[in-house]
Specification:
Layout (H helix, E strand, L loop, with lengths): L1 H11 L1 H8 L5 H9 L23 H26 L3 H26 L3 H28 L3 H10 L1
């Protein structure tokens, strides 16, 4: 998304008109565009901040971001391990990690697209309830049925 926005800045901003009029884009403009260094005559925005400003210096936000990346990398290793060694421990690990990963992802969607404070709190409460029900359902499925690993293997056999 940031790349699309930056390309729109090149095509639509005042500095973009210079680039569109010239028959060849000069390498200095391109390298400065990729490295976020200002060039003479450039009047576009150079930096994009994706995180809210109220969390910019927060240690908790940094730890949350790190936790999200750890869970994503854990999922990358857990999926092949679940295929190679299906067990109840793997089923419950998948239930926990998949639920946490989807909870954080849906939370970011609510943060990005729900604007009103009251609605955002309601959306996050709904996501929390949905995540709790998802985890409880996956644990119930693991305990009373074949489990996630065997269920996926059965689907692949179809």
């Amino acid at each position: 998304m940031a790349c699309i926005w930056r390309l729109s800045v090149l095509c639509g901003a005042q500095g973009g008109r210079v680039l569109l009029r010239s028959p060849v884009v000069r390498p200095a403009h391109v390298s400065a565009f990729l490295q976020d260094r200002p060039t003479p005559g450039w009047c576009g925005t150079q930096h994009i901040h994706l995180s809210p400003s109220r969390h910019s210096g927060s240690k908790a936000a940094s730890l949350h971001w790190t936790g999200e990346r750890v869970v994503s990398v854990l999922l990358l290793g857990l999926l092949p391990a679940a295929y190679l060694n299906p067990s109840s421990a793997m089923d419950y690990s998948l239930a926990a990690v998949l639920t946490l990963h989807s909870h954080w992802g849906l939370g970011q969607v609510a943060t990005d697209y729900v604007q009103a404070s009251t609605l955002q709190k309601a959306a996050k409460a709904g996501i929390l309830a949905l995540s709790a029900l998802t985890f409880a359902g996956l644990c119930y499925f693991n305990y009373h049925d074949v489990g996630i690993c065997k269920a996926v293997a059965m689907l692949w056999k179809l």
